Amino acid sequence: MAQNTVLRFDGISKSFPGVKALDNVSFSLNKGEILALVGENGAGKSTLVKCLTGANVPDQGTIEVLGQAYSKMDPLRVNKLGISAVYQEFNLVPDLPVCENVFMGKNPGHGIFVDYKEMVSKTKAIFDEFGVPIDPEVDVRTLTLAEMQLVEIAKAVSSDVKILILDEPTAPLTNRETEVLFRIVRQSKEKGVSVIYISHRLEEIFEICDRAVVMRDGKYVGTEYIKDITRPDLIRMMLGHNLTSYFPDKATRRTEEVVLETEHLTGNGVKDANVKLYKGEILGFAGLVGAGRTELMNLIFASARKDGGTIKLFGKPFEGKCPMDAIKNGVALLPEDRKRLGLLMDKTIAVNVTLASLKKLSRFGVVNEKRERADVEHYRDMLSIKTPTIEKEIRHLSGGNQQKVIVAKWLESESNIVIFDEPTQGIDVGTKHEIYMIIEQLAETGHSVIVVSSDLEELMGIADRMYVMSEGEIMGELERSEFNKEVILDMASGRK
């Protein structure tokens, strides 16, 4: 092992029934380096990380850490070697204080006695160094998702960490909180900590990482210094081909028919919202995290109660009491938290696709299984859902394929208005393009689409028209010809 190398994967292979997840993967991580691990969903990144943290045992190959080669890892060894990981799914105890979560399993004190004051003091010191005002003594359940993510990171660096793994760490963070995270990562690098940084947000890779390791279909593709590679070149390595057009070509398909209108809509943190959505239109909603966009969508979908104002669907007043009322009136919502709110994770693809359409598929209370299978297989093929069988549990699919299943569910229910809330969050660049094409196809076939996104480039690429929100208010409306990043950001900051 080279003197500067702290970690090396050497010929790592791993198979699961029906799939080879890793195929002879080899690369190294240097001391004090921020190494991006990139690739499409299903490229093998998560499987490789699980081999490093002991959750998976490689079929062959070795993992060399600090000069010592291992055929497999286990949690005790991982902890002893100073390897810490922060995953997308939080591993916190909600009813315990922040400090106890940070030092879980490594409480300061003597023997069975825990020095609580020292625990609080050390936790406060970590957050002070981060520049984050999180109270060490409050219960985790009282925190925001972003604060929970920072607690996870504090937990990872609270011990003598040598290798830090961050898996999509900015997903729940605002731009300001992302800057805090980058500062923490850079501070760790200065202390000699080596970082494996996994993200689908390429702009982050180019901002913070030193090198990028590219994986595709379970295989190692190559390693490039960030300073020596362009974004299109990196995308080409990830996909295996050129992405000729990142966003689909725009077609003129908007009619003058108003399918959704709100007048002075108030409630759920939303103030006096006046919105129109036309048939065949892709309508974007921009704004900073917490601007009230999701809250407005929940009012429209009847998953939150309005305090005042009106909602009209297809020219008729809509007084929905629950989401089922919205669904019956042709409105669909793909929520930001698709795993918790959009899917039944322990059920099959078939069950998830037909969940909102059982009445259509049933006669006298009995589901027509032949028709159900035919419909699900039709959408699987149409949307290119990658699965060997529609009986596969949804939790085994990648994030992008899970999102496609939700789209299939609403197409099966014959929804006319489809709301996408952060449709590409945690999704790789290739699948993002597929989602954009699906959205465009929906509009071309007469559906009306609303897209809420924190990715301004995304909104400007796919939307025909855009509303910008700040603190629950609509600050302005822009036609596609008026899209301008500076203008949008100015509105999003609260200036009309």
Task: Describe the structure in your own words.
The chain is an alpha/beta fold. The chain has 2 domains: 235 residues, 3-Layer(aba) Sandwich (Rossmann fold); 235 residues, Rossmann fold. The chain is built from 18 helices and 24 strands. A 6-stranded mixed β-sheet has the order 6-9-10-3-11-12, sandwiched between helices. A 6-stranded mixed β-sheet has the order 18-21-22-15-23-24, sandwiched between helices. β23 and β24 form a beta hairpin. The termini are far apart.
- Biggest sheet strand line-up: 6-9-10-3-11-12
Rg calc: 24 Å
Domain count: the total is 2
> What is the CATH-assigned architecture of the largest domain?
3-Layer(aba) Sandwich
State the total count of DSSP E strands: 24
CATH topology of the largest domain, anyone?
Rossmann fold
Biggest sheet overview: 6 strands, mixed
CATH superfamily of the largest domain: P-loop containing nucleotide triphosphate hydrolases
Q: How much of the sequence is in beta strands? A: 25-35%
Terminus-to-terminus distance: 59 Å
Helix content: 25-40%
Low-confidence sequence ranges = none
Helical stretch count? Answer: 18
* Tertiary shape: globular
Give the overall pLDDT as a whole number. 88
Supply the helix-strand structural class: alpha/beta
CATH class value of the largest domain = Alpha Beta
Structure characteristics:
496 residues; alpha/beta; Rossmann fold; 2 domains; six-stranded mixed sheet
What's the quick description here?
By secondary structure, the protein is α/β, with parallel strands linked by helices. The chain has 18 helices and 24 strands. It folds into two domains: 5-239, Rossmann fold; 258-492, 3-Layer(aba) Sandwich (Rossmann fold).
